[in-house]
From TrEMBL:
The chain crosses the membrane at residues 12-30, 36-56, 92-109. The keyword Transmembrane helix applies. Keywords: Membrane, Transmembrane, Transmembrane helix. It comes from the Bacteria. This is Uncharacterized protein.
Length: 429
């Protein structure tokens, strides 16, 4: 699965930032002891952080992110001046530790880290305050961040994000949908804008088309498309014949974070803005598929666009593709982002009773979730794999009616299930 990366080019002029950050951090750490100490601290800080950066880069191989220890050093470096500023308010060591522990936990994303961060931060702050009366806030902040990240690295050994490939061609990553948004907003007009960019033939709300051309494309050792219920098959191959009602089931612990993300990020992006509750979902969901075809009429891009029926506010803009590898079929769904894309590659599995499961949880090397940067000029890709994210989509027929459950987990913790009722548009009334 790992592509051969392009050799990393030396960065001769990129030591200015660590030098400045180190100097500022050193000055903040020594600020309590007068002007001379500030100068000495700045010089020492600049030297230490720059040396650490040079060493880390010298040992960094192509296709790798900087070593963990160097990232921890830089985190502590950035925390020191921020802690100094917080100290101007008169905050106690416990408060400083709590604040920076919380920040470390939130940036860790993993729910367990979010819980651990403030607890560990408060403990570090209390301990430092007990050992050293009047300890500078900059030292508390720096120590809290370094200890917090180090403990998290020891406790949670599985990586949250891993660099998969750097500056490779799209053909090297068949499991990635390399379609990005050219601007800062995706929105329901994305496929039309993409067609203008690619030069293909655009069709708005294409009739009688599915998110896959044929379920036979997904055949493999585990799936015989002939065993899939005809109604399930029809939904995948002729999605536009159906209408969807959605009932979101959010876990309580994720609601505050999602609400913040939705208002600050998703709505401004025009992408990935799932309804918060059933009342909001009752506004109605408008579903359509926009396509891009070549001169011969073959559909090359299928964009499934879901939005709120009353305002056309985007919920999801997903580009659906299928591909085959080693005798198996896969579904890859790309969600365009500014100059990047988030791809979910799913493997098909049979469900008892003729249903179909698409899941990212597999021992195979293709399924997973990938965040990919698309270079605007060269179109080469730099991709990250996100092993802690998982999803499973079950589509099945029950009493002649289609149902679906789309479940999401992060680091083993369920956080969202989308319950769908699916029925033909001609029976919507």
């Amino acid at each position: 699965m790992t592509a051969e990366p392009t050799p990393r080019q030396p960065r001769r002029d990129s030591l200015g930032l660590p030098l400045i950050c180190g100097a500022v951090a050193g000055a903040a750490l020594a600020g309590r002891w007068g002007a001379l100490a500030v100068v000495v601290g700045a010089v020492c800080g600049a030297a230490v952080v720059t040396a650490a950066t040079v060493l880390a880069r010298a040992r960094q191989r192509p296709g790798e992110i900087p070593a963990l220890w160097s990232r921890i050093v830089m985190s502590g470096t950035l925390a020191a001046p921020a802690g100094w500023l917080l100290g101007l308010t008169g905050a106690s060591p416990v408060v400083v530790g709590l604040v920076f522990g919380t920040v470390v936990g939130l940036l860790g994303i993993r729910p367990q880290k979010v819980i651990l961060g403030p607890v560990l931060g408060a403990a570090v702050g209390w301990t430092l305050g007990a050992v050293w009366s009047g300890i500078p806030a900059a030292i508390v902040a720096c120590t809290t961040v370094v200890v917090g990240r180090s403990v998290a690295a020891l406790v949670f050994r599985s990586p949250q994000v891993r660099l998969l490939a750097e500056e490779v061609d799209a053909d090297d990553l068949p499991f990635v949908v390399p379609l990005a948004a050219s601007g800062s907003y995706v929105g329901t007009g994305y496929v039309k804008e993409l067609a203008e960019s690619l030069g293909g033939r655009y069709r708005h709300d294409a009739p009688d088309v599915g998110i896959v051309a044929s379920l036979d494309d997904l055949a493999g050792p585990e799936l015989d498309p002939g065993t899939v219920d005809p109604l399930v098959r029809e939904f995948y191959e002729h999605t536009t014949r159906f209408k969807l009602d959605i009932v979101p089931e959010w876990r309580t612990w994720v609601r505050p974070g999602y609400l913040l993300y939705r208002n600050l990020v998703a709505r401004r992006l025009g992408q990935a803005s799932v309804p918060m509750n059933q009342r909001e979902a009752q506004r109605g969901i408008r579903s359509r598929i926009d396509t891009i075809s070549d001169a011969a009429g073959a559909v090359g891009v299928r964009g499934w666009i879901r939005s709120f029926a009353d305002t056309d506010e985007p919920i999801y803009v997903g580009i659906y593709t299928t591909y085959r590898r080693d005798g198996r079929g896969y579904v890859s769904v790309g969600f365009p982002l500014p100059q990047s894309s988030f791809t979910a590659t799913l493997t098909p599995q049979p469900r008892p009773g003729g249903g179909l499961i698409l899941t990212s949880e597999s021992d195979l090397d293709q399924p997973g979730h990938y965040l990919t940067y698309v270079d605007e000029k060269s179109r080469r890709l730099t991709a990250l794999v996100i092993p802690g994210f998982a999803e499973r989509l079950d589509v099945y027929a029950e009493g002649g009616t289609l149902r679906a459950e789309h479940a999401f987990r992060v680091f083993g913790l369920p956080f969202l299930i989308l319950h769908y009722r699916i029925y033909r548009k001609d029976r919507a009334a």
